[in-house]
Amino acid sequence: MSAKSEKTAPLQKVIWAKIRYYQSVMDISDAQLADYLCVCTKTLRTYEKNAGNLTIGQIESLLVHTGLSIMDIIPNNIEQ
Question: The whole model's pTM is what?
Answer without folding.
Answer: 0.81
